[in-house]
Structures are given as structure tokens and as C-alpha cells.
Known about the structure:
Adenylosuccinate Synthetase, subunit A, domain 2; about 20% strand; binds 6-O-phosphoryl inosine monophosphate; 20 strands; single chain; 4-stranded mixed sheet; binds magnesium ion; Adenylosuccinate Synthetase, Chain A, domain 3; globular; alpha/beta; binds guanosine-5'-diphosphate
Amino acid sequence: MVVRSIAVIGSSWGDEGKGKVVDLLSGKADAVVRYQGGNNAGHTVVVNNEKYKFHLLPSGAIQNKEIIIGNGVVIDPEVLFREIEILESKGFTPNLVISSTAHVIFPFHRYLDGLEEATKKEYAAGTTKRGIGPTYSDKAARYGLRIYDLTEPDIFKPKFQRLFNLKKKVVQAIGADWPFNVEEIENQYLEYGRKLKKYMKDTTYYINKLLEQNKKIIFEGAQGTLLGIDHGMYPFGTSSITWAGGISAGAGVSPKKIDKIIGIIKAYTSRVGEGPVPTELGILSDSKKGDPIKENCVTDADIGHRIREQGHEYGTTTGRPRRVGWIDLVSLKYACILNAYDHLCITLLDAMGGLKEVKLCVKYKLDGEVSDQWPIQSEIIERCEPVYIKMPGWEALPAEKWTDIAAKGYNALPEAIRNYISKIEEILGIPLSIISIGPNRSDTIIRHNIW
Ligand code: GDP
Ligand code: IMO
Ligand code: MG
């Protein structure tokens, strides 16, 4: 089978290493498409120890591939132009296409994000405060503005003023300040519109045409399956469809045209933001960034700290420390069923080095009953107790050693890692075809051909 399109999907709560894998696979691609989310995403690519962070632009940019932002993405133009400038300053010329129907984030969406979070109390998700939820809300309510609107002043002004006045009234009704000036934003966004014109296309026709011409496309997921609006842990997630089902709606491509779906899983669990994480190791206040790692980690807090430090688990977008936990095969099995992955990629195995023993959560226990079904409802998940199996851990090694192992291939991996991989494959029933043991593009072992 000729593979024309591949999807790269996060299987958990985001930050699984999607950016690294998209960059790696885009060597053989013609174009990379982002189709949901916005600059709540933070995707890191490391090549020869040089780090690139993407929030809006697809991670194929540094392989000089065509990069496409589909209709399902919400765009903060300020962030977009900053990201383009950063890339240009590093010597790249982004070959960028943007959907005319992608929705636009305004400054008051970011402001509303904070106000709305404050009213949610124990149900606040701990958002990135980038205005994602409020912008998708306006899209669904059909008040939102799209990229096209910014490029046509006569269409823009009445639509914008209607939205501005509505938001102003709502904010003032709850007794909060309204620190925005209508003309200032209008002028700024019309200027963005002038600059956006050259990138704007009907991406549905455009992407389908590329596929017809047998061009190879990667669909780059943002966030992760458990953060999705319908199938994730509502309301502790984001506002877009984060599993593979989101590609069709967010890029205008039939499900029949997605040839392969790759799920990215982490060797452990990480979560930035709120909501229950059944396998969580200790709490964030147990340690601070840079605290020494204990040689012999026994308590959950010590193990969690080791993994957080070794995996540099501090958010790409907000810098927040990420919560970490043991691998959760109950939620991963759910992601595998939902996405029907062809392959899995496991990342950050190196970051778990230095533990005598590692645990894998294989079932949840609730009110005396044991099940391997993910309960969906956050209130139920909160009450679940993980059931673990234990396996021997592996050594902590310096980064160069992991790079050497990657160059030598699969059999050079420590035996304990190979056993860990086999156990996960056995439980999830999907081949772990890409093994990632370091942040660099080269710190990767490909066991089965993907393209
Ligand atoms: P994304 O949002 O899924 O693209 O993931 P992020 O980029 O937010 O977070 C993943 C982090 O882990 C980044 O800092 C990557 O550079 C890094 N990373 C990816 N794979 C590996 C790996 O196998 N080992 C290590 N040590 N770091 C990795
Ligand atoms: P990438 O693509 C990890 C989380 C936030 C919060 C919830 C809602 O880098 O994997 P939002 O700002 O979207 O309204 O926040 O979702 N979140 C992420 N967590 N990685 C991400 O993206 C995330 N994008 C959103 O922390 O709990
Ligand atoms: Mg990230």
C-alpha cells in the first residue's frame, strides 16, 4: 500500500512528544497539517541539540516542508507572526498555508479564559489562558470571526463590533473590568488581515488536491486523546477534538483518506493542569525544579521528582511543572480502541532511568470491582485505585549514552527496557514501532517502517 497520509496523535494528556515524532517523520513528507487546538499546544523539536518550540506552526517547518494550518485551528495572529519571525531569524522560510475559515483569537478571549476559569472553582481545568475555550465557544455559537473576515474590512467591522459589544456586556454584567478599546483592536486585526492574505487558501480543496497528486501529508495532532472535548476527561480538558476523529472536521479530509494513525505514548504519565490522574506520583509541592535527585528513590515523591527532572517535565507553553505518574495502560487501551492506531511510538524511556523497579497500571479498582475499562466521568475516575504490575527498572545514563544506543539499534537497549516494551505491546496489542530515548531527532529507534 502506498502511504500518503499519516496522523500523529497524543494518547494521553498531551506532551507525549508529538513534535519530535512529526519532525522525524516529516523527512519523507511533503506537507504537515495542524487541524485542531491553537497556541495552547507546545511542540518541541530538537535537532543537533538546537531546540525549536512550536505553538501554532506545524512541526514540519524545520525540515522545510509545506506547513498548513487547517480550518479546525484557532489562531492568535500575534503568536503566529511571532513564531514566523523566530523561524525566519533562524534562517528558515516557512512555506505556510492558512485556512480562510480558521477562527480568530482576540485579546478579550484570553481575558475571558481567566474569568471563566475563576468561576469554575473545583472544575477549573487549569487552562493555558490562551483564549482557546472562549474562541471555540464563539465558533460554536456562530459569533466568531474567521481569518477571511480579517482580510475584508467591510465584512470585518460589523461582525467584530457585534462580538466586541456582546463580550463587553457579559463581562460588565458580572462586575468585572473591560479593559479593551474597540478601535485599537480593530486596527490591529485589520493590519494582521493584510499580512495574512498571502497565506490564506481554501485548505479543503488544497489538501485534497495534494493527496490526489500523491503528495505525502502528516496530520499533526495537538493535545492528547484524554484532553478531548467529547472523549476526554470533561471538563478537565480542552475545547477541540483531540483524537484522530478530529482530522476530518479540522482539515476537511474524509476519514477514508487517512492511511495510518500513529499513537504517541510516554513511558510514564504526565499532566499539566487539573483533574484526577490515578497513577500520579506524589504532589507538585513535594519538590521544586532543580532539587537534587535522590540516588535511591523509594517514596512516590522521590520517584516523581526524579522523572520530572530527568524528563524536563516543565510546560513548553506555560513553564508550569507537570504532574507525573506511572504509565496508565487502562487509559492508553481506551486511546488505542478509540484511535485504532496502526503503530505506537513510546517516548522518554531514558527519563525513567535510575529506578530499581517500575510499575504499570493495568486495571482500576472501584468499590471492590476490578476493571480495565476507562470510566470517562472524572468523578468516577477520582475514586479509582490503580492496580499495578511491577517490573525491574533500568539504569540512568548520560544523554550521549542514549544517543549511542539509538545508533546501534533495538538490541542495544537495556534488557529491562525491552521487557517493558514487550509487556506494553502485549497489553495494548499494537506494535511499538518507534522507540524514543532522548529529545534529539537522532535519539530514536525505528523498528517497523511507517511510511
Ligand atoms: P508534544 O506537545 O507532544 O509535542 O510534547 P512536548 O514537546 O510538549 O514535550 C515533550 C518533551 O520531551 C520535549 O521537551 C521534547 O524535546 C522531549 N522529548 C521527546 N521525546 C523524548 C525522549 O525520548 N527523551 C527525552 N529525554 N526527551 C524527549
Ligand atoms: P500539547 O499539544 C498538555 C491542558 C491545559 C488544561 C486543559 C485546557 O503541547 O500536547 P486550554 O488552554 O486548552 O483551554 O486548557 O488542557 N492543555 C495541555 N496540556 N499539552 C497540551 O498541548 C495542552 N493543551 C492544553 O493544561 O488542563
Ligand atoms: Mg506540548
